[in-house]
């Protein structure tokens, strides 16, 4: 039987979402019969602007995905930074290019989930995912939140941490200088493993 294919599709400005994507892949790959591929969406900003923003270099080891390739996956995890409580424009532009897939409902019934980065604690750890659910709805995709399956890691109050029942998350800091914490990385790996298990069942 062919393995269940999970695509981890992300946009990252300062590298935080890319780091979570790597951890999620580890979780997915830990499930027998499931394999993950990391992709990044096309950039929409010119290099000059990215330079002024001090954006991190693109991860050339993560190939750029085209919309039609989503149909190859048995499940998709989308990762993106927030912009005023919603997904970054680069991810929205990519999803806007999936009209052909929408018309044929090629993604209908496929599981999907989200992971994200925000600048601050009030920056949208829940709204960023909540407002993105509309994209899945129109494609007929099955939203798979991580819930509280991460267990004790969801309830600790002894540290500042990103992530929510909607998915794994991290805080970048207002200037992008904060790196994902060990707890945030652990939740990302957990989400990958949990999502892979659900996708495998649906693909059986």
Automatic annotation (TrEMBL):
Domain of life: Eukaryota
Record field: catalytic activity: a quinone + NADH + H(+) = a quinol + NAD(+); a quinone + NADPH + H(+) = a quinol + NADP(+)
Pfam families: FMN_red (PF03358)
Listed GO CC annotations: membrane
EC number(s) reported in the record: 1.6.5.2
Coiled coil: none
Molecular function per GO: FMN binding; NAD(P)H dehydrogenase (quinone) activity
PANTHER family the record matches: FLAVODOXIN-RELATED PROTEIN WRBA-RELATED, NAD(P)H DEHYDROGENASE (QUINONE)
Full protein name: NAD(P)H dehydrogenase (quinone)
Organism: Eragrostis curvula (weeping love grass)
């Amino acid at each position: 039987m062919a393995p269940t294919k999970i695509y981890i599709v992300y946009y990252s400005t300062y590298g935080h979402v890319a780091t979570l994507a790597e951890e999620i892949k580890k979780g997915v790959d830990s499930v027998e019969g499931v394999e993950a591929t990391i992709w990044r969406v096309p950039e929409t900003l010119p290099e000059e602007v990215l330079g002024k923003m001090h954006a991190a270099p693109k991860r050339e080891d993560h190939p750029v995905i085209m919309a039609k390739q989503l149909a190859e996956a048995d499940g998709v995890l989308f990762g993106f930074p927030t912009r005023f409580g919603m997904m970054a424009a680069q991810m929205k532009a990519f999803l806007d290019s999936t009209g052909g897939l929408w018309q044929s409902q090629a993604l209908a019934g496929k599981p999907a989930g989200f992971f994200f980065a925000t600048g601050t604690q009030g920056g949208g750890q829940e709204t960023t995912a909540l407002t993105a659910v509309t994209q899945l709805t129109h494609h007929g995709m099955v939203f798979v939140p991580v819930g509280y399956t991460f267990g004790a890691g969801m309830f600790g109050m002894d540290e500042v941490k990103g992530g929510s029942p909607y998915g794994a998350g991290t805080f970048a800091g207002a200037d992008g200088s904060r790196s994902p914490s060990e707890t945030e990385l652990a939740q990302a790996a957990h989400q990958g493993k949990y999502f892979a298990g659900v996708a495998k069942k649906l693909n059986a």
